[in-house]
Design brief:
Blueprint lengths: L11 H5 L8 H20 L4 H11 L3 H10 L11 E6 L2 H5 L2 H12 L12 E6 L11 E3 L2 E3 L4 H12 L1
Parallel strand pairs: 1-2
Antiparallel strand pairs: 1-3, 3-4
Helix pairs in contact: 2-3, 3-4
Bound molecules: FE2/S2 (inorganic) cluster.
């Protein structure tokens, strides 16, 4: 599916309104870039190369600068991601309560390592430092859902949900 950036969203002056008076032309363009990244990633789940090239041309910003701006933010991705994002918490509380085993089981089941996407694109496996609910350790998030006290049974449920 083609992401169409609406014309008004690339209207640099119109986008900022009155506040635009205190921003330099370069600052405005960069701000618009982040907004465009968010839109593209929402549509594709990552930032495809051809879309970044298109942005570079439309905003007249060198492609290297477009990449460098996107790379600055950890939440923009340059490779396709799976339909489901499974994130195993590896913080201290979760580590103590078996997070490594949980991660290993998921790696084995989907044939991926941390940071990779399964060949069928059903999931991307990630890790995180702490998701802020240590009392429920070990914790895994599946997309927006937090799964606490992850047991073997819950690992199986996560696997089944993804494989559906
Ligand atoms: S260490 Fe896992 S939720 Fe805090």
């Amino acid at each position: 599916m083609e992401v169409k950036l609406k014309t008004e969203e690339l209207d640099i002056e119109g986008h900022y309104g009155e506040i635009g008076e205190v921003l330099s032309g370069e600052q405005k363009k960069r701000g618009l870039l982040i907004h465009a990244f968010q839109q593209i990633q929402k549509e594709y789940n990552y930032l495809p190369e051809d879309k970044l090239e298109g942005l570079s041309e439309k905003l007249n910003i060198p492609l290297a600068d477009v990449y460098s701006t996107a790379s600055f933010y950890k939440h923009f991705y340059f490779k396709p991601r799976g339909k489901n994002i499974v994130c195993v918490c590896m913080g201290t509380a979760c580590h103590v309560r078996g997070a490594s085993k949980v991660l290993h089981e998921l790696e084995e089941e989907f044939g991926v390592k941390e940071g990779e996407t399964s060949p069928d694109m059903s999931m991307t496996l990630e890790t995180v430092g702490c998701v802020g609910c240590c009392g429920l350790a070990p914790v895994v998030t599946v997309n927006e859902e937090v799964v606490g006290e992850v047991s073997q049974g819950k690992i199986n449920e996560i696997i089944n949900t993804i494989k559906k």
